[in-house]
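Translate sequence into C-alpha cells.
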Amino acid sequence: MTGPGGFDPWSAEFVARPYPAYARLREESPVLWFEPSRQYLISRHEDVNALLRDRRLGRSYLHVASHEEMGRTAPPEFQEPFWTLNNNGMLDREPPDHTRLRRLVSQAFTPRRVEALRPYVERLAHELVDAFVAQGGGDLIAQVAEPLPVTVIAELLGVPEADRHRLRPWSAAICGMYELNPSRETAETAVRASEEFTDYLRALARRRKDDPQDDLVSALAAVEGLSEDELIGTCVLLLNAGHEATVNVTGNGWRALLQHPEQLALVRADPGLAGAAIEELMRFDTPLQMFERWVFEDIELHGVRIPRGSEVALLFGSANHDPAAFADPEHLDVTRRDNPHISFGAGIHYCLGAPLARIELAASFGALLAKAPKMRLVSDPVYKPGYVIRGLEHLEVAI
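Result follows.
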C-alpha cells in the first residue's frame, strides 16, 4: 500500500523513519491523493499551518451536513459508544458548539489550576527518576514516561488512586481508533473501553456533584451549561491528549538525545537550554504525525481541487521538517530559537493542555538530566505499530 514518495503508514520501516518520504512529498507532491486511506496528504508547513486555521475545514462535518450529504457512510451501529464519547469532546466539535464548550471548560481548566500542579508534577518526576536510577535503569517509557502524565491527569481530574491503573489501558484502547483504517478488533476494543470509561466517569461526576472536592471533575460538574456527556467527553480528551503526547515526546526525545551525544552534552552543560531543547525535540520527532480534517466546501491547493466531503491528512511530522520553515531541519539543534513547530496544532483546536504538557516535560527531562548523567541506550529502540500517534514500545537504558 505504499504511496508515491514511499508514504506507507502501515510499514514498520516507514514508521521508524518517515522523514525521507516526507521530503519527497514536499518536493514532488505537496497535495497527494492517497487511495488506501482515501485522503489528500498535505505535507508543507505553510499549507498545514494555513489549513489548520481555515474555517472551510473542520474536525467534524455533522454541524453542517449529514453523512449522506457529504458522500460518506455513517459508522457501524456497534461503534456508537465510541463516537458518542468522541463527539462530546471539544476536539471534534466546530463553532458555535466548540466555542461554547471551550469557554465552559476553560472556566474549570484554568491557568491557575494548571500552574498549581507544578510542585506536584516536579515532586512526582523526582520520585519516579529516583526509583529508576536506584535500580540502574530499565525501560524509561514504562517507568518514567508513562506514569508521570497519567498520574498527573488522574490527580487533576480527581480519580482515586485505587482506580488509576485503569486509565492507561482505556486510553490506549480508545486511541487505537485514531489510526488509519482501524480493524474490526481494534474498533471492538475501543467500544468496550469507551463504555467502561464512560460508566466510570458518569458515576464519578455524580459523586462529585453531590460532594465536591478540589479537583477538575468537581469543577466541571459545577459549570452551568456543560452537559454530563460533554463533561465525560472532556475528561477523556484531557486524558488521551494530555498523556499520549507527553509519553511520546519523552520517549522519542530521549532516543534522539542519546543518539546525538553532542546535543545532549550541550543541554547537560547549560540547563538553561532545557526549554528550547524540549521544543526542538517535539519538532524533531513529532509525537502526533497526522491530524485529519474534513472539507466543507471545494478548495484548491497547488493546482489540485479538493472537493467538498473530502478528508485531508495534515502531516505534522512533515511540516515540522520543512526547510521552508526551519533552517537545516534534519539536524537536531537544542539551541534552535526560531522554532514554529506545530506539534500542538494551531487555530481554534490548538491544544488546551499544552501548558501542562510543558510543565511535565520540563520536570521529567530536568530530573533525568540532573540524576542520570551517564544514561545510555542498551538496545535499539523500536517504534510501536501506530503511525498517527507515534512513539516507542520501549526505551531500555542503563544509568
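Note: The first strand starts at residue 31 and ends at 34.
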